[in-house]
Structure formats: C-alpha cells, structure tokens
Design goal:
By secondary structure, the protein is α/β, with parallel strands linked by helices. It contains 6 helices and 5 strands; from the N terminus they run H-E-H-E-H-E-H-E-E-H-H. The protein is globular, with a radius of gyration of 14 Å. The chain starts with a helix and ends in a 7-residue tail after the last helix.
Length: 144
C-alpha cells in the first residue's frame, strides 16, 4: 500500500478534471448500484511506465471530445485496495488491471482498456482510442 502523500498529486491530476475518487468497497457498490447514464472509470496507478501516460491520455480525450460521459470516477490501485477490488467485480470478465480505463452504460461495461494496451502506448494514441469509445457510447452535452 502506497502512502497517501506519495499519490496525492497523481489523484489530483484526475480530480482537477472532474473525477470523483471512490475510497471504499461500500462506496463503489453503492455507486454502481445507482449509476445512471455513462460512467468513465479510471483505475489509477503508481506505475511510471503506464500510469503517467494513461492519466494524460484520459485527460486529453476528455478535453478533445465533444462526447462526454455523465460521470467520472476513479480508484487508486495500491491505495484504495478494497475499492479497487470491488471495481474489478464490475469489469469482469477482464482480469484486474492497473492502470485501466472502463466505460459503463446503464446495462454494464461497454469498453475496457487493460494495462497491456496502455504500457508503451503514447498518450495521444490512448486519447484517440478513448475518444472513439466516448463517441460510440456517450451523448453530446445538452445545449443550454
């Protein structure tokens, strides 16, 4: 388990763009039982070889896409262990992966990106692939 002070800036990268951290298994269960619309989940990671590029790719995709998920949530592997384990119950049949990117609609998981698809992949490629998934599964924001 990593000390919170080591991972605070990595978590802040995501909360700054609207991600809500889920810290316990009970909070994950409650959230998933009551979610509506589309939800983008990011499993954050200390891994320098994959976590950094994944965070940047997700932020780039959200900034560039006209299609946005209704909700943004995150858990931090190695920090929020129970929450992370509970999240992986919802991403089956995929094995646990850190980092990982998951997109849910009301009827369940519709897109999942595993660590092996992230590691060594430039953030721009991660962003483009995620933008395609957002376009396929999310709605354009309502015009006020």
């Amino acid at each position: 388990m990593y000390p919170e002070e080591l991972v605070a800036s990595m978590e802040q990268e995501l909360t700054a763009v609207g991600f809500v951290p889920l810290k316990t298994a009970a909070v994950v269960t409650d959230y998933m039982a009551n979610r509506q619309g589309t939800t983008l989940l990011f499993v954050n990671s200390m891994c320098g070889c994959a976590g950094t590029g994944a965070r940047l790719g997700v932020k780039m995709a959200l900034a560039a896409s006209n299609y946005q998920p209704d909700h943004l949530i995150t858990v931090f592997a190695g920090v929020d262990d129970q929450a992370t384990a509970q999240v992986f119950e919802y991403t089956k049949p995929y094995p646990p992966s850190s980092p990982a990117i998951a997109l849910f609609k009301e009827d369940g998981l519709v897109h999942f990106v595993e660590r092996h698809q992230i590691k060594g992949t430039p953030p721009e490629i991660i962003a483009t692939a995620l933008q395609d998934a957002l376009e396929a599964h999310c709605q354009l924001p309502a015009v006020a």
